[in-house]
Amino acid sequence: MLGRWRSSAGWVAVAVAVVCAATLVGPCSAGDPFAYFDFDVSYITASPLGVPQQVIAISKQFPGPVMNVTTNWNVVVNVLNSLDEPLLLTWDGIQHRKNCWQDGVLGTNCPIPQGWNWTYQFQVKDQIGSFFYFPSLGLQRAAGGFGGITVNNREVIAVPFGNPDGDITLFTGDWYIKSHKDLRKALDEGKDLGMPDGVLMNGKGPYRYNTTLVPDGIDYETINVEPGKTYRFRVHNVGISTSLNFRIQNHNLLLAETEGTYTVQQNYTNLDIHVGQSYSFLITMDQNASSDYYIVASARFVNESLWTRVTGVAILHYSNSKGKAAGPLPDPPNDFYDKTFSMNQARSIRTNVSAGAARPNPQGSFRYGSINVTQVYVLRNMPPVIINGKRRTVLSGISYSPPATPLRLADEFDKQGVYTLDFPTRPLDRPPRLGTSVINGTYRGFMEIIFQNNDTTVQTYHMDGYAFFVVGMDYGEWTENSRGTYNKWDGVSRCTTQVFPGAWTAVLVSLDSVGFWNVRVENLDTWYLGQEVYVRVVNPEDNSNKTELPMPDNVLYCGLLKDKQKQQTPHGSQGSSSFTTYVGAMLLTCMMIFASIVIFP
Ligand SMILES: *[C@@H]1O[C@H](CO)[C@@H](O)[C@H](O)[C@H]1NC(C)=O
Ligand SMILES: *[C@@H]1O[C@H](CO)[C@@H](O)[C@H](O)[C@H]1NC(C)=O
Ligand SMILES: *[C@@H]1O[C@H](CO)[C@@H](O)[C@H](O)[C@H]1NC(C)=O
Ligand SMILES: *[C@@H]1O[C@H](CO)[C@@H](O)[C@H](O)[C@H]1NC(C)=O
Ligand SMILES: *[C@@H]1O[C@H](CO)[C@@H](O)[C@H](O)[C@H]1NC(C)=O
Ligand SMILES: *[C@@H]1O[C@H](CO)[C@@H](O)[C@H](O)[C@H]1NC(C)=O
Ligand SMILES: *[C@@H]1O[C@H](CO)[C@@H](O)[C@H](O)[C@H]1NC(C)=O
Ligand SMILES: *[C@@H]1O[C@H](CO)[C@@H](O)[C@H](O)[C@H]1NC(C)=O
Ligand SMILES: *[C@@H]1O[C@H](CO)[C@@H](O)[C@H](O)[C@H]1NC(C)=O
Ligand SMILES: *[C@@H]1O[C@H](CO)[C@@H](O)[C@H](O)[C@H]1NC(C)=O
Ligand SMILES: *[C@@H]1O[C@H](CO)[C@@H](O)[C@H](O)[C@H]1NC(C)=O
């Protein structure tokens, strides 16, 4: 099963080999099942908006496959970099507890060189929910390379709704016909990316809802459903920088989960989904089948008469449908002059505190509202600035400059001077500068982070390795008094939050996992220009592998440590078949034993 690379459409081998596999795979937890994936990351040609372009596919699929796993499973992903540039995949929302070695960002991992493969191994420990992976370097996500991660509940844990009749993943996001390299060049030259060329739904362009606006010959996405049934839609905004309003004509969206938290279930006719965010909706096919229905994701907070092309349209098709969807798209919220609509909608998303999650204890049993905050950071976004003649973005005046040596490796090998541990707790009154300044997080501390957005567009912020409680957001400048407005009871715990322009969002996070954890803006242009930081969490009392897993055997070296790296025969001439055959044979044996014990006792 773990055999040689396959170029056929992404296959997913889920081999559940309980005891034996643990002997093959070190840092994963024995006893929990293993899921194996082979990802060949390469360019393919696709024409989502009618114009052929290079997109990044996973094993020839665009979007990539959904990794459908269950809480506590060990995930092994062998990633082959068939691009013409370095690659890392990151697993947004996966917590990698004690194991930032697998996070797939430049602060924790050396990039996988072109033609090489690297195997990620991690456990989806104590979490559930809807997440996605994507390539984390150099704007590559603008070309694709993303796919879903669905973490199901273990069977012993109750889910706060009936078993849906189907599970549908929908990737939506703004899209450019230009390649990610051209977009990068534009940013390097100090330009804006400008208006996107469209919005894709599962890698496809819009249905031709209007013959003037949408050219002929574009392939669109169709979601096939049965009347009367209820489906779980997992919707991810995998786009570059545009907030989207999501809606389905004539259908209610019953919000049920976001990024690992079961929400209070409420109906929405539409919901704003910002870049990097994920939501699950339960949608009942309760309309008559006189026609198909539009599924829409349209650009938000822009002049819609200028941005009409930035609209994704897919089709919801009942099996007994009598005709095509027709007429105008369902209306977006009419709130051009009302800044509060979207913020109030965001505030209405709350945790169902009595629901269980990954573990049997209710989600509300962690009383975040009564824990004393030990560290406070105000991270301030501003419009881009010029530093050393280059257009850059900053957080609290610092534009992150990634060192050649990953921060985590620098610590492991005691290389001084790679980074400084002096990130300011508040923005300082000093000129913006480049730096590799890291937040000194206190292990087991409780950190309050306030994102203050002084720019004129919505930005979303994400923290790797953790979910944070979103406790408040409001317009204006955050002050100590703003704490009086915090939701200390059922704020939602998630990994990506929006920060409206001229507004702040406050989050609380319990720093209980050792490692270097990336805090970044998810808007790709802002991120590319330098807006990110890492939080370093070390346990001063422990180096026994209890609070952090050891460095993996296959770690890649670069920067100051590049001499430690053994060359890898670029793929193709790779003569490892005897090894893979051995692994395959081992696995097969294990599976047979497992099957004979567990499945056919
Ligand atoms: C995902 O896995 C779960 C549990 O193993 C299974 O019930 C479900 O059908 C799978 N979903 C998809 C879309 O394959
Ligand atoms: C590369 O893939 C081969 C199997 O195709 C595997 O044996 C090897 O361990 C992988 N290398 C790394 C560094 O992950
Ligand atoms: C909250 O979760 C409980 C327990 O699973 C469930 O019975 C209830 O319907 C949920 N309530 C809402 C409003 O989502
Ligand atoms: C199509 O869009 C154009 C431009 O916005 C608009 O003038 C026209 O009324 C639309 N056509 C239909 C059939 O809605
Ligand atoms: C949501 O809307 C559906 C109709 O589409 C309705 O049956 C259901 O009761 C509503 N649920 C809630 C929690 O409002
Ligand atoms: C189906 O719904 C459409 C639009 O709501 C309505 O015009 C039509 O009369 C309905 N048809 C039936 C058979 O109920
Ligand atoms: C949107 O753009 C159109 C066309 O340029 C312009 O006429 C209109 O005033 C703009 N609307 C707003 C609200 O700015
Ligand atoms: C939080 O701080 C207050 C005042 O400093 C103190 O009285 C209280 O015991 C602390 N609570 C916890 C849970 O540590
Ligand atoms: C980082 O924080 C720890 C406490 O968590 C403290 O002991 C240490 O001195 C700090 N390091 C720096 C460089 O500020
Ligand atoms: C940004 O900050 C300046 C100075 O404090 C203030 O005048 C301006 O209104 C702010 N703009 C936004 C969008 O927050
Ligand atoms: C930690 O794990 C590494 C690698 O497995 C091992 O070499 C080392 O001895 C372990 N350290 C302790 C203190 O157990």
Automatic annotation (TrEMBL):
Pfam families: Cu-oxidase, Cu-oxidase_2, Cu-oxidase_3. The keyword Nucleus does not apply. SUPFAM superfamilies: Cupredoxins (SSF49503). The chain crosses the membrane at residues 579-600. Keywords: Cell membrane, Copper, Glycoprotein, GPI-anchor, Lipoprotein, Membrane, Metal-binding, Signal, Transmembrane, Transmembrane helix. Its cofactor is Cu cation. This is Monocopper oxidase-like protein SKU5. It comes from Musa acuminata subsp. malaccensis (Wild banana). The lineage of its organism: Eukaryota, Viridiplantae, Streptophyta, Embryophyta, Tracheophyta.
